[in-house]
Design goal:
Number of strands: 0
Helix content: over 70%
Mean pLDDT: 81
Structural class: mainly alpha
Number of helices: 7
Largest sheet: none
Low-confidence stretches: 1-29
Order of helices and strands: HHHHHHH
C-alpha cells in the first residue's frame, strides 16, 4: 500500500508515466518566477549600463541620462524582487545567490565607471566596494552560527548609496553638483558605520554560537559519563 489512489496513478495502481519528469518540470518552472526574472533583468542591465556610461567618451549628457535610467531600473527591480520573493514565497536557491550578486554588480559597475571617468575619487569606490565585499565574506563565515537581520541603518545606507551614485551618474552642474557631494559623503559615513556595526554583531553572534556549542558538548559529555556510571553499578 502506498496510500495513493489508483486513479491518481493513471488508474492502474502504478506511478503515472513521466512522474519524475513532471516533478522536475515543476521544479524547473519554479525558477522562472517574477522575482528571479527581475534579478536576471538587473544582471543583464549591468553591461548595458557600462556601455551607456562610457559612450562617446563618457561625458555626453544624453548618454549619461540613459545610463541613469538603466541604473534607476536596476535599483527599482532590487526593491521589488526581494519583496515579491518574500511575500509570495518565491524564494529559490538561485535567487539567494543571484540577488546579492546583481546588487553588487550594478553598484560596483557604476562606482568603477565614475572613478575611471574622474567624477568620483577612487578611495570612495574602494571604501564602498571593500565594505560590501568584506561583509559578504563575513556573512559566509558566521552563517553557521546564525543570520544577522537587516538593520534600519543598513537600509538607509543602501538608499543613500543608490541616491548618491545616481546623482553622480547624471551630468549635474551648479548647486545640484554640490548637493550630490554631500549626499555621497553621507553615504560613505553610513557605509563605514554600518559596516563596523555588522562586524560587531558578527563577533557577538560567533561568541554566542561557540558558547552554546561548548555548553552542548559539556552536557553531552556529562550525560555519557552518567550513563557509564549507571551501567557500572
Amino acid at each position: 500500500m502506498t496510500g495513493v489512489p489508483a486513479s491518481a496513478a493513471g488508474g492502474t495502481g502504478r506511478p503515472a508515466p513521466g512522474g519524475k519528469l513532471g516533478a522536475a518540470a515543476v521544479d524547473q518552472a519554479s525558477l522562472w518566477n517574477i522575482a528571479n526574472i527581475l534579478t536576471m533583468v538587473r544582471l543583464l542591465l549591468v553591461p548595458g549600463f557600462v556601455m551607456l556610461m562610457l559612450a562617446d567618451g563618457g561625458y555626453d549628457p544624453a548618454w549619461r541620462a540613459w545610463a541613469w535610467a538603466a541604473f534607476a531600473v536596476a535599483m527599482i527591480t532590487d526593491i521589488f524582487d526581494g519583496h515579491l520573493a518574500r511575500t509570495y514565497n518565491l524564494v529559490t536557491d538561485f535567487g539567494k545567490i543571484a540577488d546579492p550578486i546583481a546588487d553588487k554588480a550594478i553598484m560596483g559597475a557604476a562606482l568603477i565607471c565614475l572613478s575611471y571617468l574622474g567624477d568620483l575619487p577612487w578611495w570612495v569606490t574602494g571604501v564602498i566596494l571593500g565594505r560590501e565585499l568584506g561583509i559578504t565574506l563575513l556573512r559566509f563565515v558566521v552563517i553557521r552560527y546564525g543570520v544577522i537581520p537587516a538593520s534600519r541603518g543598513g537600509k538607509m545606507k543602501t538608499l543613500a548609496q543608490g541616491t548618491a551614485v545616481g546623482m553622480y551618474v547624471l551630468a549635474l552642474t551648479g548647486p545640484l553638483a554640490t548637493f550630490r557631494f554631500w549626499v555621497m559623503a553621507v553615504a560613505v559615513v553610513l557605509t563605514v558605520v554600518t559596516g563596523l556595526d555588522y562586524v560587531r554583531q558578527a563577533i557577538v553572534l560567533r561568541r554566542e554560537g561557540l558558547a552554546e556549542a561548548a555548553a552542548a558538548a559539556a552536557a553531552s559529555k556529562a550525560s555519557a559519563e552518567s550513563s557509564t556510571e549507571a551501567a557500572e553499578k
